[in-house]
Design goal:
The protein is an alpha/beta fold. It has two domains: about 80 residues, Alpha-Beta Plaits (2-Layer Sandwich), CATH 3.30.70; about 250 residues, 3-Layer(aba) Sandwich (Aminopeptidase), CATH 3.40.630.10. The chain is about 40% helix and about 20% strand. Strands 5-6-8-7-9-12-10-11 form an eight-stranded mixed beta sheet, sandwiched between helices. Helix 10 links the parallel strand 10 and strand 11. Helix 6 packs across helix 7 and helix 10 runs antiparallel to helix 14. About 40% of the residues are buried.
């Protein structure tokens, strides 16, 4: 039986090798007591979470041989992670946006709420899809409101993140002038929302942007001149242009609220560490998410958005992993949105 399983696995691998490999990511679970091996894996591949005493890691199919040479006892979870999306698609993705409906809904918001909403195209993806940001703020109060950014679908296969962002937008719009908290948020802040950071990946329901992991594609202190994918480069310019003071990049999955640093185990200066810890602890009190420094909650991740924005702009930048699936069942969407409403607004209100 064991030889049959090995034969079938090899057959699948050979068949897969004949297909285009840019979008093929395999997931593995592994454990090791060798710190040098763990560091080498984390430097090369994307460790997505700690689980069951080990780690889950995503490995581009062409590099699976290299990974298995380093960690020969790794357990294959899924040969092609896009298959899980295919299974969901076959069941119907009702309740989820696609890229066209994202654009349509942004325009509907602008048409319905012209006094508080505006849309900016801040660039184009490598495949020339528009990069769109929605700004929500009232004309009330001071001219110098803190600018806060929330982003989703950095990884194109994390479809639930787009729904969380639209859930936040909907609560703001429906609550403005009806709910004191929502009204105060729009009176006090300039809130920017980018529902799809990586449209090329999102339209294909693929994790990466043109074969590159967007959340390992930012410059970082040990690689300050890193050349980024157009969707990442445009976002970096947007952040600087609008003088963003704080940001959340929503990902899926794992139920984690995390802050820099990701690229090193070393902590932030004590004041910054205390502020981040206090804010994320308060946020986690609403949904029970794990909170802490990215490298300690998951593992080393070089080139992340949270690190870049804190490093370059001294902003209060977070990465949040929502829910426990990239594409949960449609009936789960409202709960996952609900789990992140008070948590997110608490973060926004902490920024002065």
């Amino acid at each position: 039986m064991k030889s049959l399983i090995i034969y079938l696995s090899l057959f699948n691998l050979i068949a897969l090798a004949k297909t285009p490999t840019n979008s093929i990511l395999s997931s593995y679970w592994f454990t090791t007591s060798n710190q040098a091996v763990l560091t080498k894996v984390a430097d090369k591949f994307e460790i997505t979470r700690r689980t069951k005493g080990g780690f889950e890691v995503l490995v581009p199919f062409p590099e699976s041989g290299l990974f298995l040479n380093w960690v020969p006892d790794a357990h294959l979870i899924e040969l092609d992670t896009s298959k899980s999306l295919q299974r969901n698609r076959d069941k119907s993705l009702r309740g989820y946006h696609n890229f066209q409906s994202v654009q349509d809904d942004l325009r509907k918001i602008l048409d319905k709420h012209p006094k508080i909403a505006s849309i900016e195209q801040y660039g184009a993806s490598l495949e020339k899809r528009p990069l769109l940001a929605l700004k929500l703020t009232s004309t009330e109060s001071s001219l110098h409101k803190p600018s806060i950014l929330m982003t989703a679908s950095t990884h194109g296969d994390e479809l639930i993140t787009v729904e969380v962002l639209f859930g936040l937008i909907e609560q703001l719009l429906s609550g403005y002038l009806q709910d004191g908290r929502m009204t105060k948020l729009l009176d006090s802040y300039e809130l920017y929302f980018i529902p799809v950071v990586n449209p090329d990946g999102y339209v294909r329901e693929e994790r990466y942007a043109n074969g590159v992991d967007p959340n390992r594609d930012y410059p970082w202190p040990q690689d300050p001149n890193h050349k980024s994918n157009p969707c990442v480069e445009a976002l970096m310019k947007f952040y600087e242009t609008h003088k963003i003071k704080a940001s959340i990049d929503f990902h899926a999955y794992g139920q984690m609220i995390m802050y820099p640093w990701a690229y090193t185990y070393s902590g932030l200066p004590s004041f910054e560490e205390n502020v981040f810890n206090s804010i994320t602890s308060h946020m986690a009190s609403f949904n029970g998410y794990t909170h802490g420094q990215i490298s300690k909650v998951i593992y080393i991740a070089k080139g992340s958005s949270a690190d870049y924005f804190h490093w370059k702009h001294q902003s209060w930048s977070l990465g949040i992993e929502v829910g426990m699936e990239k594409v949960p069942p449609t009936e789960s969407i409202p709960k996952i949105i609900g789990d992140n409403l008070d948590s997110t607004w608490t973060f926004v209100e902490s920024i002065q």
